[in-house]
Write a structure and sequence with these properties.
- By secondary structure, the protein is α+β, with helices and mostly antiparallel strands.
- The longest helix has 16 residues.
- The chain is 24% helix and 20% strand.
- It has one domain: Jelly Rolls.
- The termini are far apart.
- The strands form 2 sheets. Strands 1-7-4-9-2 form a 5-stranded antiparallel β-sheet. Strands 3-8-5-6 form a 4-stranded antiparallel β-sheet, with no helix packed on it.
Length: 262
């Protein structure tokens, strides 16, 4: 039976440490379908189009296909066991924020220490935001791993406050480098984390999809200029559930502001 309910110890761990590992969380059929769509997303240039529209909206129009338009990706966004666990961690009312989908080649550089909590001015952590990191093909010791710094989500700091440390090993960190296929890591979005590459290992591609969700009650800054269209397509594609009317509701977002104007 697939996990859809956390015990008290797991909830306490997430609140204390800011992350939770769910091995083999996703069903095999869904993993296979999403992985096939990741290949299409990367190999046909759809991902490049989405990035271009996000970075330079004045030049590039909203792509004809976004992540919620891919059937398995849409199913993953609204995966019922995931939403039930998110409800345990941040209450019954939360909204989908965004999704990234990629296939990391073995030579992909690491990503320095950072967090992903969206706030115009980093001033509080009153409302949780959670990133679900889906490792479709798992992680093995010959691949880049995920380093997390337990408890750092309780700090109020800029996203790049530890970027000068690169991907260095930090005291107290937890390094996740061995996960079975279909595993999901839930991060409080304010938790500092890093992707630590292993250039000495040939490895294999890492199929990676992350989706973020936010507790309602504050206005969340969008990160993509076409965020309204993304939510509209999610609704149009039938991802909305009458039991969760907030999931794709635009009312929970502030206006988009270009990075250079923030």
């Amino acid at each position: 039976m697939q996990l859809s309910k956390l015990d008290d110890e797991s909830i306490a761990q997430f609140e204390r440490d800011g992350f939770l590992v769910l091995p083999r969380f996703l069903p095999r059929d869904l993993v296979a379908d999403v992985a096939a769509e990741v290949d299409r997303w990367v190999d046909t240039g759809l991902r490049v189009q989405a990035i271009a529209a996000a970075v330079d909206p004045d030049t590039h129009k909203v792509p004809d296909i976004l992540e919620p338009d891919l059937p398995a990706h849409g199913e993953l966004i609204a995966h019922k066991p995931l939403l039930e666990i998110l409800e345990q961690l941040m209450g019954s009312r939360f909204v989908f924020h965004h999704m990234h989908s990629d296939r990391h080649e073995p030579n992909r550089p690491g990503k320095a220490w950072h967090h992903d909590y969206e706030q115009r001015v980093q001033s509080n952590r009153s409302h949780p935001m959670i990133h679900a990191l889906h490792y479709l093909d798992g992680i093995d010791p010959d691949m880049a791993g995920l380093a997390v710094l337990p408890g750092s989500h309780l700090e109020v700091a800029e996203k790049t406050a530890r970027a000068h440390l690169g991907t260095d090993v930090l005291p107290g960190e937890v390094f996740i480098e061995d996960l079975p296929p279909g595993s999901t890591v839930l991060l409080h979005s304010a938790l500092f984390h890093a992707r630590r590459a292993k250039p000495q290992c040939p490895g294999r591609p890492r199929y990676f999809v992350d989706a973020s969700y936010c507790q309602v009650g504050t206005l969340w800054p969008p990160v993509k200029p076409y965020w309204r269209e993304m939510l509209n397509r999610a609704r149009h594609n039938g991802l909305a559930d009458s039991d969760r009317p907030d999931l794709f509701d635009e009312i929970h977002f502030s206006d988009y502001i270009k990075p250079e104007q923030r």
